[in-house]
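Hi L.,

You mentioned the student needs an example of a multi-chain input paired with its predicted structure. This one should do, with 400 residues in total across all chains.
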Amino acid sequence: MKARHKRLGFLIVGLAALGLATFFVIQALDSNLSYFFSPTEVAQDQAPSNHVFRLGGMVEEGSVKRGEGVDVLFTVTDHANSIQVLYSGILPDLFSEGQGVIAQGKLDADGVFVADEVLAKHDETYMPPEVAEALEKGRQAEVKMNGGTTP
Amino acid sequence: MNNASINWFKYSSPATFYPLAGRLIPWFMAIAVILIGIGLYLSFFVAPTDYKQGEGYRIIFVHVPAAWMSMFIYLIMAFWAVMGLVFNTRLSAMMSQALAPTGAMFTFLALWTGAFWGKPMWGTWWVWDARLTSELILFFLYIGFIALQGAIDDTRRGDRAGAILLLVGVVNIPIIYFSVKWWNTLHQGASISVTQGSSMASIMLNTMLIMALGFWAYTIAVALSRARSIILEREMDSQWVRELQEIRQ
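Structure written out for the whole complex:
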């Protein structure tokens, strides 16, 4: 065995050990590394409901209600569970119905999430407006063909 | 080794690598200028506006290639670290040293442009989610590598310490790449994936790829030129350096 083979062996063993250690650390930290909780996780009591946490999901279509001034009430959903969010402040430009959103705040006694910060979460789709329009038309045509049931 | 293939080990010697690098630099620089020129033209004038983000999305044409480069360059440096530790070649450590400032620059560029995009789109400059935090750690790794290698006067020991730091830090690269998959993050998932293709309009995708290739060519050109300076500095007292035409003049 040449010296360089030995060194290569040491390196490979060392890197494998390091990789394994990292894997376990990541496993242990798993829940702490998530930036937000989904409504389903909140429903299953996985979120720290007695102090501040972040809630992430989609703004449900037709759920946005504007109150006095900058007050706004909307529903965040992951299509399985949903939570009402109350926020008073300026919303980011990308905030709209059907768009991903992350709110930071606390659950109050009635199960309404009182947010002190709302961030828009963008998805990984990039396309020109005409394409988006065409896709939307296609989707509507499909809904009609299926007799009005939403996909 | 048969005669038809190139003897790669020949170029692991600084004395043969130095003139080769000198010949390659103008080519890669020219490719970089042309590709980045075309890429920027496409980014600003040809690529259509995005259906949701409007004009602001154009920052991804710099942001995404810069973020790719920040990870690629680290992997290449780690490759040279392995080569240096296993084969004890002098040139390997010089290559890592030559790549590090460019890697740090692209990491900074990715973080900086990301903040500019984040403010109008997300509503915040910075959040401590897994993707952003691990990319920031990558930046610290680059800075740490440059500092550590530079802080040790004995170049052989400095190179070895730097190489070990590079290899320890390499676990961060898969964490950056997969962070958006493994955990809930504010940062969106990858628009381009090997298995699922891309979720971008093709003109946007092509523009991004052209920019990425331009950044590659730029990286190669500046790394080679930096490597040449490092070679001259380290081999100052050797016969072949003293005989170089540009040194004798």
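You could point out the following to them. The CA atoms of residues 58 and 99 of chain A lie 5 Å apart. DSSP finds three helices and six strands in chain A.

Best wishes,
N.
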